[in-house]
Fold these 4 entries.
Entry 1:
Amino acid sequence: MDTSDTDHTEAGPRTLRRGLQILRTLQENSESGLTVTSLARLTGLQRPTIYRLLAALVEGGFARNVSGSKRFMAHRNSAVPGVDQDPRIALAFPVLQKLAMLTGDAVFLVVREGHESISLWREIGAYPVQILATFAGKRQPLGVGSGGMALLAKLDDAAVEDIIARNSNRLEQYGGMSAREMRQLVQNTRTRGYSVVGNYAVRGALGVGCALCDARNHPYLAISVTAITDRMPATRQREIAHLIQDGLKTIADKI
């Protein structure tokens, strides 16, 4: 039974034990995932506690929401993505690994869903200071991050304006982003051939992103690399963009 924490000296260890209990239960039921109701039944914890701990596990990249459902699964950050995941992950995975190794920074696979972007995968580089700007399963307005901006800039002007309008009431939450700044970033991305977005989704971070379109010229996926701003002078931005573009060419041959 889930009781309130009355002893503050025990609160931290108790929370950790409960979080690990949820994670272990998800790992033991990895084929189909579990709903919060199922987790409550299996662990004996109350649903508000489970929701709170699940949010922390998802944010930390240890668990993920199964797209289009109320189920959660333990996140597989293993050598090879799981077969149940979005096929774009398996396509991009070797490129993501190589980019993380070459740059030392965090690399993200991002896709578009309507007026939002969704992060599908994150690879962490070896540099000691990492900007973990997002995590698998996280949604945000399309364009506030470098991967989402790369996708947004591939759309026609009418679609761009529609998406900006749909997200207008949320943009200010991202470093004071405005519709005017969003339009300017789209133009900059089209001119440059890759996106550069800094200090919006995460303060002190700068990301470089490139997008790949499918045979119908629809944005299919984007890859971005994010680091602390000091590691991202203009020359390195260009170098990273070229590395991403080279990687996207290998993916394009497979779709």
Entry 2:
Amino acid sequence: MFGILLVVGAASGPVEAASPASAATVVEASVLGANTVQAQLLAYLARGDIAGAIAMYPLQTGRAAPAWLTDLQVAYSVANQVAGRCQQVARFIHTAYGKLGQTPQYIAFKTDETKPYMVFELANAKHASVSRTGYHVAVRVGDMIHDAYTGPLGMKLSDYLSRLHAQKGITWAVVSNP
């Protein structure tokens, strides 16, 4: 079990979790046992290293990385940081984490305004358009929110809400479909 983390760390530097939640995922993956591909994938994802997970998969299984894993990499691309792409991005993220034994949830963000625009404040303090319809969806895995704007490490809900803006505020709820 510990060897998994050492091998992973040797390939791409020391294992550093980006947040307490991702640290818990790394620990959970190693404690669960298992010297499994699933545990290794979770360790890579906890570090935000999707490319490493995709490269590791064929080495461990002898098969090409599955579409849900490559779709996850596409979901986080900067090209998806535009209004109107959130539902497909959420489906990719939800599917991937579901395949990895997690319990992802769709989270819908809404604003009820005559000009229903939502923007997301990026790390560089610029604002990206998230929605022109007053509806945006992301995925919650544990206590982290994931979408194209958060990148593969995700973001705590409180931090996400502090960056998601609409003129008259935003409400959110767990929904069954994006």
Entry 3:
Amino acid sequence: MYQKNKSAYRTAILGILTAIIIIQNFVPLLGYIPIPPLNPTIIHITVIVVSLTLGTKDGMIIGSVWGITRMVKAFTMPASPFDYFLWRNPIIAVIPRIMVGFVAGYVYNICKKRMKNDSTAMIISSVLASLTNTIMVLGLIYIIYGETYASLLEVDFSNLLGVLGTVVLTSGIGEAIAAAIIAPIIARPLKKFRPQK
């Protein structure tokens, strides 16, 4: 009975949050805040919630759903010239999103073993997972498309690292704070409904 209930719980959470990820990608303002060139996101919070609630593997699955959906949007509904080369590349669109799920789940598992306060463990893992997305996406953009990206931004390539660093300190920190506040608030009640042995 426990395994059956656990499977039903997992299927329900994955199904609901997969649907939310898809909606967030395609409905304006629900997933991305339209501040070019990168558009800050809150979708990573959904991935983090899955990792905190169901575990690392399921977080990585939902992260891949996010990345693949982002690629589909870039091919079918490109919002800017950046979509044509940034988000059609699976290395940039998918890998960092999978790593969000991995870092959230892995760090949470380590922290909850070492801390008595579950909320603190959730906050730490949420912040690190959020920053993983920001730093990996920007780092891969710099490595793969640095000169093209600098050209589109109309900045000299030698100044691009400074520009990307500013994005980390503004959008990246904002996204991390949002994740630290919202992800535990959503994950905590979901965990209470998890089937017990």
Entry 4:
Amino acid sequence: MMDALQAALRVAGSGLAAQSARLRVVSENMANMQSTGASSGADPYQRKTITFSNELDKLSGMELVQVKDIGVDQTPFQVENDPGNPAADKDGNVKLPNVNIITEMTDMREANRSYEADLQVIKQSRDLISMTIDLLKGT
């Protein structure tokens, strides 16, 4: 069984990894928000989604957050009339990615704040461990 400070470090570490993966997915979505299909009538970039799950860590007996799945958003593509676009179909319509910049910015902000909170837990736990070692040295 782990002590409370080591447990806090493991939980916060799993949170850092999960939020880092979330930030990568959001960044990929934002980078591809204008990526149309490679050929006439082809589907454009499809927004990726990420889901998390709690996994029991047998070593510590705690539940840690893990990336469960990276999937794709099934919302329909936007269609825009742009006959000059190489990705346009025979009617001049181009399918645009189902990426919404406001949604992505909101997800990025939330992931960033969660990442910072986990980082703060790690810093506080390290400080408490250092203080404990200093106290033990003094006796």
